[in-house]
Amino acid sequence: MPRxxxxxxxxxxxxxxxxxxxxxxxDAIKIGATAAITGAASTLGAMQGKLYEGWEQAQNEAGGIxxxxxxxxxxxxxxxxxxxxDPKVSVKFYEKLINDDKVGFLIGPMGSPVGFAxxxxxxxxKFPMLLGPSSDPxxxxxxxxxxxGVQDLATEWSRHYFDMHAKLGKVKTMxxxxxxxxxxxxxxxxxxxxxxxxxxxxxxxxxAPQDTEDFTPxxxxxxxxxxQLAYIASYPPFFIKFAKxxxxxxxxxxxxxxxxCSAASVRSSLGPxxxxxxxxIFWVPGMKLGDYRMLEAALQKSGVDAVQWSFAxxxxxxxxxxxxxxxxxxxxxxxxxxxxxxxMEVQTIxxxxxxxxxxxxxxxxxxxxxxxxxxxxxxxxEARTGEYVYPRTR
Amino acid sequence: xxxxxxxxxxxxxxxxxxxxxIGSRYHVSFMFFLCMHLALTATxxxxxxxxxxxxxxxxxxxxxxxxxxxxxxxxxxxxLIALGLAALVAGLVARLIAVPVFRLRGVYFAIGTFGILKLxxxxxxxxxxxxxxxxxxxxxxxxxxxPTFYLMLGAAVAAVALNAGVAGSRLGLGLVSLREDEEVxxxxxxxxxxxxxxxxxxxxxxxxxxxxxYMWQLTYINPPTxxxxxxxFAPVIMAMLGGTGTLAGPLVGxxxxxxxxxxxxxxxxxxxxxxxxxxxxxxGLVMPGGLMRSRFFSRAYRALALPDHYGYRAGAGGAR
Lengths: 394, 320
Fold this sequence. Notes:
The structure holds two protein chains of two kinds.
Chain A: H1 2-18, E1 29-35, H2 42-45, H3 48-61, E2 65-67, E3 72-74, E4 76-82, H4 87-99, E5 105-107, H5 112-125, E6 129-131, H6 137-140, E7 147-149, H7 159-168, E8 173-179, H8 182-197, E9 201-208, H9 216-225, E10 229-233, H10 236-248, E11 255-257, H11 264-270, E12 278-281, H12 292-302, H13 310-313, H14 316-329, H15 334-342, E13 345-348, E14 351-354, E15 366-371, E16 374-377
Parallel strand pairs in A: 1-4, 1-5, 5-6, 6-7, 8-9, 8-10, 10-11
Antiparallel strand pairs in A: 2-3, 12-15, 13-14, 15-16
Chain B: H1 3-22, H2 25-50, H3 58-74, H4 79-101, H5 106-126, H6 128-131, E1 137-138, H7 146-167, H8 170-180, H9 182-187, H10 192-218, E2 220-221, H11 223-227, H12 229-242, H13 249-267, H14 272-286, H15 295-303
Antiparallel strand pairs in B: 1-2
């Protein structure tokens, strides 16, 4: 029995070290990523993996990606793992993608905390990584040479929204309530700047902990200041609690904004209270930018509802940029592809992408408004699928 | 310790030490986190298993160590000195909080220690100038992960050795008697207050060190990662699954759960969480005392001729 015990322990360890066989086609472009299928960021990214599968299928049915040096199209294979929204799990799986799965290219994870850790793997291996939904400025301030952002910095999140208000000129005062998390703090920093540029006075500016339950004093301050716009820089759960209490206390600003109001939980939890709430999103059905047909095919194949999982859709912009880079470079040499990407412009489903000097990309989300339970893109004019309704309270 | 058991531990140690040379960088990464969990579980079991106090704040020392290391390195302190500081500060904080938390017992102690963990999280969020606040704290990455791998392996070995040392000593006997009946232990001449404080402090040193090594390796920490639920509950679950209050329990529990998690996570995609839960429920139902108290392991354990004071034959078994 002791021998069996020892053998079992050693075999179990050896099995883990050996790991699963790659089982991949040899003649394929292998792209690696981790996805927030579970954990804190899964409210936004749970369907990220399924979308990758759908995009892979749609792309391969279209023949794959043209590689000029090989004079043919190659199919793609996207290998992804659930990082549980946990930085250390992400690190482990990016090591696996590079060493065991031998991927040719890396795209980034969902969320800045995970992005912080995952990019250290890319930097250690000098392995280029296109970074999608991880846009905290500090990620790019570390001077890493191997990462290139796709989205613009979190501080640029609401640029289009305040451009719109600058043009409309209706809002003069606003309240800013920030959930104390990485993403929201970045967004709020930008909001203060944009509001000033649009001639809007920030009458109330508060930061509240993530687990805030009682918003009464904050709402009272907003009511007293008689603000026209309440901007709640937060994740959906925080906003839902705020919006319900605001309605109970009779606080009905002319505009109510939450950057991630596109999440399905906002509409399902708030019901009619979600009506005419504004937010931002990278793509809504009906927007005809970039290769939207490939996206529609990916959505159909994966069975993912773009409206319900709109934020996960943004992760596909990384793949669009990578595909364009490979096609233009005409090679699978990732350093050459990466250098090419940094010097090019790509029309994506989220608008025109180009590399910025600070390491981030140029993709910023478009303002949307929930109208009759549906999301309508309201600005800029080229991405608009409907008219902005103001004020919210008629 | 019997010869076969020593041989098994030596083989596992050699296999782990050879990972950078026989495995890929991913295997090194996997082994790094396995050692991290083992170090946390083995030290948790000193308080949770032998002493019978379920410490849900064990992860607090890990987080504290990570922050002390990060702040130290950013301040220009040499990484090795920063590691020493991480362990030292964790030990000092444990000594300080031992006084109030050991006024509590049973479930109140568990809740109290969990409160300490959450208190540190709130402090990490609010002392932004020092800790980086919500955005977290980052340090420059080092080119090689080999030093951190061997440091973590060393920490795991130290934790298992500490666990074994406590189990086989007069201290361990004192802890078991305290677990069985605190009043009787006190009546028998054991200074229970001092004993508990000393053991609590001892059990905090390694997690502090482990937190520092983790920060060295990952270069980034934020409050939820440092003081999150996983850091708090993972050592408890692993120890219980392996069998609390047994020498091999933390080792078996850690290896078992880490392997299961790894295989499910990398192979099962969207079904992994359901499978993970099913495995935990199955083990809980079939082996309520943990793997080490299952029939298979019991036989192996007897065959390996481990002495009674490792806890399992006594049947008392600590906090289950």
